[in-house]
Amino acid sequence: MLKRYIPGLTLIILLTLAALAMGQTMPGGKWWKDPDIARKLDLTATDVKKLDKLLVKSRRQWINLKNRVEKEQFEYENLMESDTLDEAAIDRQLAKLEKARSDLSEARSHFVVGVRKILGRDRFQRLQRIYSESR
Predict the structure, then answer these.
(1) Distances 107 to 48, 59, 64, 110, 127 between C-alpha atoms, Å
(2) The pLDDT value given to residue 60
């Protein structure tokens, strides 16, 4: 019976890894506050303010979405640990969990797009090079 859920669990793991990989196109945290990075990217005070505002908005959204992922994960685990196995309910819950994770990944991607819009193409590519060289 567990074999039936292995493809779903594998999909969850792959989605999580994809989300993590996508989020690794730039440094974490407030990298624009680093004087060396700010200098290399020629950041203006306006750029910094826009990046700060984008991060605050994005982090609020990420917190809510992470909470949703945790809730859906809890509900999934609860169904899996139940005395009687309701496969249809597990399938529905797995879909909710996958959707929550996908929404979180999408929100993280929107942050990266927002950064790209603020920096423009050339400076965004410079940021990616800076990040890849520091890893």
Answers:
(1) 20, 9, 11, 5, 20
(2) 97
